[in-house]
Structures are given as C-alpha cells and as structure tokens.
Amino acid sequence: MKLLPLPAFADNYIWMLEGARGAVVVDPGDAAPVLAALGSSGLPLAAILVTHHHGDHTGGVAELRAKTGAVVHGPAREALPEPVARVTGGDTVTALGLAFEVIDVPGHTAGHIAYHCADAGAGGPLLFCGDTLFSGGCGRVFEGTPGQMLQSLERLAALPGDTQVCCAHEYTLSNLKFARAVEPTNAALLQHSRHCEQLRERGLPTLPSTLALERQINPFLRTREAAVAEAARRYDARVDPASPVSVFAALRQWKNEFR
Predict the structure, then answer these.
(1) pTM of the predicted model, to two decimals?
(2) Among residues 52, 53, 73, 112, which one is catalytic?
(3) Residue 57 among the catalytic residues
C-alpha cells in the first residue's frame, strides 16, 4: 500500500491509499487533486471515506462519484451528498482488501467519525481522523461539548502507538507553537518542533504523525499531566486541575485565542 497526502485548498490534505488494484480517498473536499492522482497512477477509485460534513471534506464527493462510480461511506448522522453508505461506530468498511474500523468521535461535529485500519502493511496501522485529532492539536469544538471531544481524543489515543495519524490539515507548526506555550520545557516537543520546521522549509508535509509521538507532544492528549493542568489553571484560574475536562476546555479556549 502507498499512502499519499494530496494537498488541497490552503492547508487541507486529501489522503489517498493506493493498492495494486485500486485506490481509496478520504475527505475529498476537491475532486481535482484526486482525479489528477488517479490519472497518474492509472488506478480505479474503489471507495471514498468521509469523516464529517464540512464542505472542505465533502466538496469533491459528487464529482468523484459521478466520474468513477466509487462507493461513498460516511457518518450515519450527518448531512452528506447522497447516495452514501452510512456507517457508525463499530461498523467496518472493506476496501482494497483492507478493513477500516469506524470509530465515533463526536465533538468537532456531532456525528464525526474516524477510520482505523489495523493491518495496512509495513507502514503500520492507519488512522484517518478528519478534524478531530491534529498533530500537536485538535479540532475546534463546534457541535459537541468539551467532554465529548476529550472522550473522542482519548478513544483515539488508546489505539496502538505505531498508528499513523492521518489528519486533514497542515496545522502542525501553529499547533506546536501553542503546545510550547503550554509545555515550554517538554524536550520531545521541542525536538519535534525543530524537525517539523525543517520539513516545512523543504516544502514537505509534517504528516502522518504517530499516536506514540502525539501522546508525548500534544497538550490535548496530556490533560492529566500536572504541567499541562497547571498551565491551563494559569490561563484560567477557574480550572480544576484534577478534572481533565476542565483542563481540556481551558486549553481549547486558550488555543482559540492564541496568536
């Protein structure tokens, strides 16, 4: 299997997974990059996986379906361009001979889902997490609650550490800048920040990350760490450091305002 992040818009990635007989794409907000990649590879499009309803993740679905005949799989409880094979947590989508487990991850949107492929070959397991988990960060809480979002993040963080985190935006440098404000002495974070800066200077993506790395550097996965809880309390004196949800809510609000 070959994993490709196809750039779209200002900072989106449409993930394409290529096998010997076909390809799968995740969250195609724009059809053009996908059609170009399919043209280069000569592969048919076997399936389209959608994580949530936002237009930068769904804008190319109708055109791709019309031009390729690919089956679209998407969350059961969100408005999407029909027809869609609806899936929810615990379901499995099969494509290219691979099994993609569906995980419910509400928070960013009410019906957001993720896709986890435990056996994708030598590269390790794959997690297509849309706008729930980013490298060094997480999505804004638009339709859910902080408690839901934290639960969703912790559900993803519990997956195997070698899982490749295939999120949908190149937000890494800005996320790591915020993470350093939260944990300025986190050695793993400082080292990874330098690495990502070098990648971007060369025009390369910072993704995929891994869950093992994210557990070390991502403040939104570290709400139970004393240093993170104390940083959140310094930002907002009302924070209960013993409550991960309280810490998370403060971190998310801090990030919303951070420049």
Answers:
(1) 0.97
(2) 52
(3) yes
Is 131 an active-site residue?
yes
From the candidates 57, 112, 116, 192, give the one annotated as an active-site residue: 57
Instruction: Tell me which residue has tokens 């690495």.
Output: 195
Of 78, 87, 92, nearest to 131 (Cα)? 78
Q: What's the rounded Cα separation, in Å, for the pair 24 and 172?
A: 24
Active site residue 108: yes
- pLDDT tens digits for range 146-203: 999 999 999 999 999 999 999 999 999 999 999 999 999 999 999 999 999 999 999 9
Asked if 73 is an active-site residue, the reply is no
Among the listed residues 27, 30, 53, 56, the single catalytic one is 56
- Do 38 and 4 touch, CB atoms closer than 8 A? no
Q: Is 54 a catalytic residue?
A: yes
For 163-214, the DSSP string reads -EEEESB--HHHHHHHHHHH-TT-HHHHHHHHHHHHHHHTT-----EEHHHH
- Residues, the chain: 259
